[in-house]
Amino acid sequence: MSFFSTQTDKLTSFSASKLNEGWDIRVDSDFVGTVNLPRVVEAEKNSIVSASRLLTADFNQPQTILIRGSLQNVIVKLNDSIIYEKSFEDNIFNTYASIYHFVDIPEASSGSTIEIILVSPYKNMSGTLNEIHYGPPSTIYQHLISQHAYKLNVSLLMILISFIFALINLIFFNKQSQHNAYLGIFGIFISLWLLAESRILQLYINNDFLIGSLAYVSLAASPIAATAFLKTYIFKADKKLFSSLCVIYVINLVFIITSHISGLFAFFETVTITIVLISIGFLLTLYSLIREYSHRKDILSRNYLLLFSFFTVFLLLEVIGFANKNFTGTANYATSGILLMLIIAFISTILTLSNKIKEVYEKEIYEVIANTDQLTKAKSRFAFEKDIEKLFYNSTNHLALIYFDFDDLKFINDHFGHNEGDKTLIDGFNTIHSVFHDYGNCYRIGGDEFACLSEMINLDLFKSLKTELHYKLKEINKNSNYQIRISAGYTEQIHGEDQKPSDLLQRADQHMYIDKNKNKAQVKN
């Protein structure tokens, strides 16, 4: 069996003609009457329902008759000779499907008797006689597309929107918006149902099992995702109720599939259960939304109450149509309602994503500001406290702390101005950073106090780097009206003795002041 159809007749501007008047109807050979189509007659399951009439003068030319079968085997006879037959096999891989039948009528058939025989294993479908059209093959295809392309295009658009909707939430929001991913999955399932109900899927996919099962399986799967969305996002207080409802929907999906595979019930025979369960779920959701809004009076509850009420109207119209056996109009109301609901949800997600990106961008800017000293561009005291806390408690490795303090900065501010004092801090930090940054991170932790954290520097390396720092400062001081001098104190974490980061700070500060006193003594001498 070819999976994809290759019918590519060129469309013309002709209109398909109707062949609906004057059909003689018989059920199991008993004459019912002469009727116009469409019509539903009383018939038991597996009853032989036949409709016959004479062909008009139009059939002097070759024509194609379009017959819509509703879960029925179809036989077409011309003057008692079978010219077309379609029978569904009674197995899980060739389930009964509601499809169109294209029957070619040869030329010079005017005045001939055409008889259409319909047999269905389902009582609700046995007596269904749909409209019949005829015309050239290209006109027939044009008629089908003009009648049903809207539903097909909408369902494909909804699949695309739902897929993007779910993907955006999984990629950009991850676990924070898992509920929206569920909503996107719901949209995919409900879109597949609409695709199956578009009536022209068979023009592109020539597979009876897929055409006959897609609507039932996707319809049963869709409330699972919808209920998962509700319980994770809206009804956290009623989580147990909606978790139980979700389990019921999963059981129903498993039931309809296993029943069909085992031959216990066909898909069509279990669809009523699915519709009843969905209706119960909608009523529970509507009730919970009303109760939620009455308690919280928040915008979220109000918006979802309005959206769900709107969608419920469309769903109830579908249920009423199905209960009245209006199978030809299946999904007409739901198509527009679901599309509008998903578009609103999609736009809402795009707006939320835009705000999320803005928040992330602003957060990153604020973090940069918080972690950076605006004068020297060194890492800030806030960053220092975070890093030393992390390294002190989470590392079993070597941790060294070097504490720096500028000598005579007050003298520079008083005699050369605060701008020169700021320049001293900038030049001094740049010198510290140039010497120590390969071994760790450097921070400004106070007015003229700086520090470096390193897991690589030991005492011998510190002495070497300190000598390099003093040498670079002397080079800067050669062309300066004042001298930049920096004292430095070194310590390292003593595991088992140091109880908190402040123990290192206190010890490094003490060593720094010892170095400062030495520097002052050298200056005096």
Automatic annotation (TrEMBL):
The keyword Glycosyltransferase does not apply. The keyword Transmembrane helix applies. One of its GO terms (cellular component) is plasma membrane. Residues 397-525 form the GGDEF domain. The chain crosses the membrane at residues 152-173, 180-196, 208-230, 242-265, 271-290, 302-321, 333-353. GO terms for biological process: cell adhesion involved in single-species biofilm formation; negative regulation of bacterial-type flagellum-dependent cell motility. It holds the Pfam family GGDEF. GO terms for molecular function: diguanylate cyclase activity. InterPro entries: Diguanylate_Cyclase, GGDEF_dom, Nucleotide_cyclase, Rev_trsase/Diguanyl_cyclase. Keywords: Membrane, Transmembrane, Transmembrane helix. NCBIfam families: GGDEF. This is Diguanylate cyclase. It comes from Hujiaoplasma nucleasis.
